[in-house]
Inverse folding.
């Protein structure tokens, strides 16, 4: 399985930075439905859970070739999202050791499914947290 790192179109990756890491940088296109401030942020566009990438159904369809080229399972959702907070944070949570941390009332049901929850008022939980390993944040 290849290892990829997903990033924002707002700040393109430098290929040379990842050349020796074994990671393949993938730049995500902007979303037309999310506010300008986060429309290219990976934590607003996708969520990695249990070996699959979760994204919005329309975003997947607009970028199908890119997602299919990743060669990993893609799960789509038609849950409501928009460019208005807190409806732009569907994927902006952290899942660690079976627990989802985030503003859970606005986090995708696909992310929360089968997981315990720690509810925090911070809507952009994933983009404001450093995941220091698979067992601590």
């Amino acid at each position: 399985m290849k290892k990829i790192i997903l990033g924002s179109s707002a700040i393109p990756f430098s290929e040379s930075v990842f050349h020796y890491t074994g990671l393949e940088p993938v730049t995500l296109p902007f979303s037309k439905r999310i506010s300008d401030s986060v429309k290219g942020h990976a934590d607003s566009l996708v969520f990695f859970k249990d070996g699959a990438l979760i994204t919005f159904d329309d975003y997947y369809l607009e970028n199908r070739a890119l997602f299919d080229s990743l060669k990993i399972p893609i799960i789509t959702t038609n849950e409501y999202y928009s460019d208005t907070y807190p409806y732009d944070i569907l994927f902006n949570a952290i899942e660690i050791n079976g627990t989802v941390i985030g503003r859970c009332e606005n986090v995708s049901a696909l992310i929360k499914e089968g997981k315990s929850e720690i509810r925090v008022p911070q809507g952009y939980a994933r983009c404001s947290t450093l995941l220091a390993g698979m067992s601590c944040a």
Q: What stands out?
A: The CA atoms of residues 22 and 106 lie 34 Å apart. The chain has a mean pLDDT of 85. Strands lie at 3-8, 23-28, 46-49, 52-56, 74-77, 94-96, 99-102, 116-119. Residues 57-62 form the longest helix (6 residues).
